[in-house]
């Protein structure tokens, strides 16, 4: 019997050098219930306000960023975590090189 699984011992090692003046995204896993995307933001880069049709979780692994969720703004750092319901307007602006894990449920 075989069980399909994915084990990543170090998420930060999944990010090559963070590209200057850009945002890197890499899908680590996807099935019919979950999509996992690793983002690497160069300092100063921003994902402008947008929405998603699915609930999502943001988990910051390194760096510092401003996160806007609806009308509220937060300062995120390594260890920060947020759950968002579907269709919530949100944006992210990195103040330093930042790595974030996105889980779309």
Low-confidence stretches: none
Main beta sheet: 5 strands, antiparallel
Biggest sheet strand line-up: 1-2-9-4-7
- Beta strand count: 9
Number of helices: 0
- CATH-defined superfamily: Jelly Rolls
Characterization of this structure:
Helices cover about 0% and strands about 50% of the residues. It has about 100 residues and is mainly beta. The protein has one domain: Sandwich (Jelly Rolls), CATH 2.60.120.10. The strands form two sheets. A five-stranded antiparallel β-sheet has the order 1-2-9-4-7, with no helix packed on it. Strand 5 and strand 6 form a beta hairpin.
Question: Could you give a quick summary of the protein structure above?
Answer:
Helices cover 0% and strands 52% of the residues. It is mostly beta strands and 105 residues long. The protein has one domain (23-104): Jelly Rolls (Sandwich), CATH 2.60.120.
């Amino acid at each position: 019997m075989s069980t399909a699984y994915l084990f990543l011992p170090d998420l930060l090692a999944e990010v090559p050098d963070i590209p200057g003046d850009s945002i890197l995204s890499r899908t680590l896993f996807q099935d019919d219930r979950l999509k996992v995307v690793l983002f690497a933001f160069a300092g100063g880069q921003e994902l402008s306000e947008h929405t998603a049709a699915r609930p999502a979780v943001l988990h910051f692994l390194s760096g510092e960023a401003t996160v806007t969720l609806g009308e509220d703004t937060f300062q995120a750092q390594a260890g920060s975590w947020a759950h968002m319901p579907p269709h919530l307007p949100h944006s992210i602006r990195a103040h330093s090189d930042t790595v974030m894990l996105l889980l779309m449920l």
